[in-house]
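Throughout this chapter, every protein is written as a compact record of paired, labelled lines. An example of such a record is reproduced below:
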Amino acid sequence: MGESSSSVSLDVERISFGGKEHYIHTHHGPVSVAVYGDHDKPALITYPDIALNYMSCFQGLFFCPEAASLLLHNFCVYHISPPGHELGAAPISTNVPVLTVDELADQVADVLDFFGLSSVMCMGVTAGAYILTLFATKYRERVLGLILVSPLCKAPSWTEWFYNKVMSNLLYYYGSCSMVKEHLLQRFFSKEVRGSSHVPESDIVQACRTLLEEKQSTNIWHFLQSINWRHDLTESLKQLECRTLIFVGENSIFHSEAVHMTSKIDRRYCALVEVQACGSLVTEEQPHAMLIPMEYFLMGYGLYRPSQLNLSPRSPLSPTCISPELLSPESMGIKLKPIKTRMSLEV
């Protein structure tokens, strides 16, 4: 079991997009945390994928009115950015040692210590989902539930390792060149929204492309290096006791990884939602597909949308009150295989 202490410190805080952005010195370097909401409410921690921050990874979800009302009504949200991924970040020197994935997970513990959070709900996307899952395996008593989007849990395959190594070399020598951006967009989105020679790319892809141009290439390089040397969490998943809700786009390059992860977690605690015609970044490409599964998931904690419950939650979440039936495929959708729920985009 990992341990953490309370000797983290606040460097700077400023108002950002309606929330307050804190720069916190952890035992493994500074991180940016943007906080939205009432601190008396239960805490929701988010962690984005490589080259993204909370604005580019979770904006679609939190700008979806129904999802925003569900999450912001029930939680105070703490958006953690990987080192150097926050808006306006200065470049990290390549001479600075690359953090291990365990050190990145320990940074999350330091953030909780700084804000005085004993236990939290977690939401992560791909590489961020891996960091939060690792955090959950190291600090099991501090995680009440996991909402994971196209998560990683195994060590990189040789194919993934090779592609990441090529991208790392491109970032190191050429910066965020067009090839790097195209590879990242393929990682995030399905080909339907990336467009083609006959179909223009969608607004969300264009917006993401613009944000990638503003990122410091050395900072992306650092996080990519950390993730490319990650270790396998398969055995640790068997000890997870918190409820876990996994989303994955059917066209995600990490689809098989999500299925593998679901198969290794106790079926009493885990459900998989497969979103049709979607890539890895479900939070941006199809955020509305996450609403109903999240509603059922959070009902087990006694949390509802404002229209269903007018009182604002003020007490810690209790995982013991969750009914396993709420995470059954029948509750999440229609007749499907026990570990998978297909979300149809047709109304």
The CA atoms of residues 164 and 325 lie 40 Å apart. Strands lie at 9-16, 19-26, 29-36, 43-47, 76-81, 120-125, 143-149, 243-249, 270-275, 341-343. Residues 158-174 form the longest helix (17 residues).
